[in-house]
Amino acid sequence: xxxxxxxxxxxxxxxxxxxxxxxxxxxxxxxxxxxxxxxxxxxxxxxxxxxxxxxxxxxxxxxxxxxxxxxxxxxxxxxxxxxxxxxxxxxxxxxxxxxxxxxxxxxxxxxxxxxxxxxxxxxxxxxxxxxxxxxxxxxxxxxxxxxxxxxxxxxxxxxxxxxxxxxxxxxxxxxxxxxxxxxxxxxxxxxxxxxxxxxxxxxxxxxxxxxxxxxxxxxxxxxxxxxxxxxxxxxxxxxxxxxxxxxxxxxxxxxxxxxxxxxxxxxxxxxxxxxxxxxxxxxxxxxxxxxxxxxxxxxxxxxxxxxxxxxxxxxxxxxxxxxxxxxxxxxxxxxxxxxxxxxxxxxxxxxxxxxxxxxxxxxxxxxxxxx
Amino acid sequence: xxxxxxxxxxxxxxxxxxxxxxxxxxxxxxxxxxxxxxxxxxxxxxxxxxxxxxxxxxxxxxxxxxxxxxxxxxxxxxxxxxxxxxxxxxxxxxxxxxxxxxxxxxxxxxxxxxxxxxxxxxxxxxxxxxxxxxxxxxxxxxxxxxxxxxxxxxxxxxxxxxxxxxxxxxxxxxxxxxxxxxxxxxxxxxxxxxxxxxxxxxxxxxxxxxxxxxxxxxxxxxxxxxxxxxxxxxxxxxxxxxxxxxxxxxxxxxxxxxxxxxxxxxxxxxxxxxxxxxxxxxxxxxxxxxxxxxxxxxxxxxxxxxxxxxxxxxxxxxxxxxxxxxxxxxxxxxxxxxxxxxxxxxxxxxxxxxxxxxxxxxxxxxxxxxxxxxxxxxxxxxxxxxxxxxxxxxxxxxxxxxxxxxxxxxxxxxxxxxxxxxxxxxxxxxxxxxxxxxxxxxxxxxxxxxxxxxxxxxxxxxxxxxxxxxxxxxxxxxxxxxxxxxxxxxxxxxxxxxxxxxxxxxxxxxxxxxxxxxxxxxxxxxxxxxxx
Lengths: 371, 532
Description:
heterodimer; A: mainly alpha; two-stranded antiparallel sheet; two-stranded antiparallel ribbon; 16 helices; 70% helix; 3% strand; B: alpha/beta; Rossmann fold; 4 domains; six-stranded mixed β-sheet; 36% helix
């Protein structure tokens, strides 16, 4: 009995409820006669697709800035990296020069530009957050919103030659949604894309087993990112960063500049956000500009909170569990609810209720100040 | 005879979770006298006053034993309101005044005089109109009573501290039926002139038949103003004395008087070679801006291999010394370690010069409560000395095996009671947490170890172990130890020399076997030559 209680305590009530809800949805959808293969493929795909964005929460939480609602900064940097890289690849005629390799080069260049930009804006953002200690999460929410508004102007003002990116009629400004089909869309996760565009020796990147799609390439990238974060928080810098997030006085008394660790944590979080959105776009097959990333930060925050993280502490297991539960529910709830209640927007409403409800719940559980 | 005392508290005992803080304490105050309550920090003065005021902290922790009589009548004070109704008032050390209100408003707050209006007849007293005339007159009267000529309509904000204190006193006096006023260290924040003024006012108040309980550490003030006194020590009643019949030295002796048990065998003393030539740490004109524990111009030399103690009352600055050296607060002046002048504006400078620190604030500064024992113990050594790290492709990654082995060694060495190196330090008991803090400092391999309040809040067994271990590393590894403690007994059982800190400066440096009276006087800031 005691053991059961400990297990129960470890899981926690919210995770238990959401977990049961998820299992219930899966069972219901199978009972309703949905095909298991596409359903699981979808859950897996969405889980990995959002995974890195959720992972980006960890450095923020650990370094003491709390949940990084301003992840839109990183997302914008990543998107900027992606569009710049696509334009460069178009101008340089990479598709002809490098054939199948051009998709990889474009992806790599997108990541490079995204990471560099995210590193720079993340540092500046960290400087800002050090000036608003105590209300980081409020400020970061507004930073997140403002940067999207700012980027709207930026997207509009770009004049790109790449027809995939610019508005077809105007030749000025970028599209709302740009297809990545001719570029790096799906090269790590879509079996059809991999089969059609990549040489045979790369066909293991994505394949089907039974009815289930296994995006092995994406799994590896996500695993690599998790490993990097895990390793980082076992390094001297990472350990100092977590200490700074947990107890500023303790960290200072060990001769560590807390403010600097917070900046580094914020920058790291922003960089992961940039990588996250590029991998997201890669899986999705489209680049979504303008207001599309507006609420992505909230989804990431909700996911890691469902996973069991707090405003003070977060672990990789929280990311894995949280992203799975959150995305799993969305994927399964949509068709199930559509089947049961035939009202157009209900699944979307449900999604909003779940994500915002979880954020509210988790924030109400946090203790003020330094524990 | 029966009604000789206005207040008498008889056989008061109180324990906090099994820890006895008061044992059969008696306190008697005659009508119209100034009665001083004396004792070191932690002697039980505050607890006794909390009982007198019926503070919730007393009743939420199981109440107290003994009885309280006012005017010879038993009285049950179980809430501050009852204390007030019984005519007991308090002048707080920290002012309970609203800065943006004027003097009258502050004096009459909560006891405003109202006039009924049409609205108040319907909606109740809260909508009454204030009778400013009456209130001002009352405030004026109260101020006149204590001989203050400040305007009753002046705002409190921006007044000198002394004036605020007087407003606070006026407020207490204005309460009708006040019989007994408690002054809790009222002179601690005042300038010398203001303090004298306050003592005069206290006499004025008693002339009106109000009794005063006067809590202070300044023994000289007691001698000038008080009629009688009660001395407490370690929660026990020591004596009730008439001021006329005693002297400073006797009081000091009664306050401190305790048997000092040497923890370290004197025979070992000779083996160490302490010399004034080799100085481990020197402070020159050293200032620390630590709120509540300011250091104001300290000069001291600590010899290599010595155990040096800093004692003194809370708030006098002894805590600030170490926190300044570790760079936690702004400092000025010179800190010289083994002949090298430290630049304390650089974070971690002291650590890099082989000084380790065990903070007095265990849970706030000393530990990462959510992290494992292992992480806590190796943290500083890893960050400062780059130990317990593997270099993997230029990345410094934690060497888990080495860290765990070291932690296990430390757990064994210091007898840390835990489930293993991975237990969170926040779930340990106070004594074991302290051992973890000590282990972290020792892992740094320090040449100078500064321990601040090493035994605060830990049980006797752990206390002894910690102190013995400090002595051991001093003797075996030659580590210079600087110990800062509020417990004189502890300092005297371990240290070679003890500096008593008063008002941010070293008041005097004494040997552990100096007489009790000398310690008592030094703590109270009284120079012996003054007495002669």
